[in-house]
Every structure is written in C-alpha cells, then in structure tokens.
Design goal:
By secondary structure, the chain is mainly α. The protein has three helices and no strands. This is DUF2934 domain-containing protein.
C-alpha cells in the first residue's frame, strides 16, 4: 500500500476503534483491544467487501430484517387458555 492509502486505512481504523470504545462504555486501558478489533473488521472489509459486516453508523437500507418496533407490532397478543366447561370432566383411558 502507498502512504496515502495507509493513512486512510489508519484513520478508518481509529474512527471504528473510537466507536467500539464508546459502545463498550468508554473503559480505560482497552485502547489496544479496540484498535485490534477495528483492524480485524477493516481487514475483513478489505478482503471481501461483500462479506463484511457494515459498521453500525452505516445502516443497510436493503436489509429486510424488521426493526424492533416493527417486530413488536407483529407479536400476537397473549391468549388465555379456554375456560373449562362446568360439569364435564374427562377420565383418562
């Protein structure tokens, strides 16, 4: 890689590492771990962008997966079991 591409890649990794740090609650002493995770993600993107996982700040508008709100709208209401009929009991066979 040339210097310019290295700088762009490092900037992308730094930005992603910062996002990971924020997502993890901004813990102290884990900068190297966040950098390595971001670097792995970057390698995955560079290797085959079609197989890469999109960064959270890049929504995938083609994703057919419904949002949590959409999923909540489709959940069936709770159904109580049918009431037992009075006076009728079944004996086991």
């Amino acid at each position: 890689m040339d210097g310019r591409k290295d700088d762009e890649r490092d900037a992308r990794i730094a930005e992603r590492a910062y996002q990971l740090w924020e997502e993890d609650g901004r813990p102290e002493g884990l900068a190297e771990e966040h950098w390595m995770r971001a670097e792995r993600e970057s390698r995955d993107v560079d290797a085959d962008p079609a197989d890469a996982i999109a960064f959270p700040d890049e929504p995938d508008h083609d994703d057919p997966t419904p949002t949590i709100e959409e999923q909540a709208d489709t959940v069936a209401p709770e159904v109580s079991p049918p009431a037992a009929r009075k006076g009728r009991t079944r004996k086991p066979k």
